[in-house]
Amino acid sequence: MSLFMQNSRGEPFGTSDSWTKYIQSIFKQLANVAISSNALRSSFVTDLLTSRNRPSDDLLAEVAFAMRHSSREQSRTYDRRSSADKVTCAVALTSERVATALDVTTAAAPAPVATTTSSKRLRRADDDDDNVAPEVGDIVGAVDDSSTLRKPFVHFGKVLRVHPDKREVLLGHLVQQSSSSTAGRSKTYRLRIGGGTWIEPFDSLVYPVDMTYNTSSCVYTLRTPLHDIHVDGLGQPRSPSDEAEELLGG
Question: Which of 237, 228, 208 is nearest to 126 (CA)?
Answer without folding.
Answer: 208
